[in-house]
Specification:
Elements: H1 2-8, E1 14-18, E2 22-24, E3 27-29, H2 31-42, E4 44-53, H3 64-71, E5 76-84, H4 93-104
Antiparallel strand pairs: 1-5, 2-3, 4-5
Length: 106
């Protein structure tokens, strides 16, 4: 999937990947690190990471409120911001207006 997204994105394209590690009993699978490593090996640049609070824990009947009451912590999962090539620079519209208004005055 990550390779297909990379192939379809144009230069400067952005892909947000939401993944979380998982467990099977006591064994933990590092899906986050593996996904990020794969994305980088394909050519993506890891430009940022956001964290989303989980409101429900998959595979259980535990909601966030129950989790907070039991351990005082929220569970977060990362959302990786991955870019292909150079990330475009977003210029403030006012700066663009000033630039062109100065150019028009001849």
């Amino acid at each position: 999937m990550i390779k297909n997204v990379y192939d379809w994105l144009g230069d400067g394209g952005v892909f947000f990947l939401n993944v979380a590690d998982t467990r099977n009993g006591k064994e933990r699978y590092s899906i986050q690190e593996d996904s990020l490593s794969i994305a980088k090996s394909i050519g993506f640049n890891h430009s940022d990471t956001y964290y989303m609070v989980q409101t429900v824990i998959a595979g259980t009947n535990t909601d966030r409120q129950q989790l907070m009451e039991s351990n005082g912590k929220s569970k977060f999962e990362p959302i990786f911001k991955l870019t292909k090539g150079v990330e475009p620079v977003i210029i403030d519209k006012d700066i663009i207006d000033i630039f062109f208004s100065e150019r028009v005055r001849v």
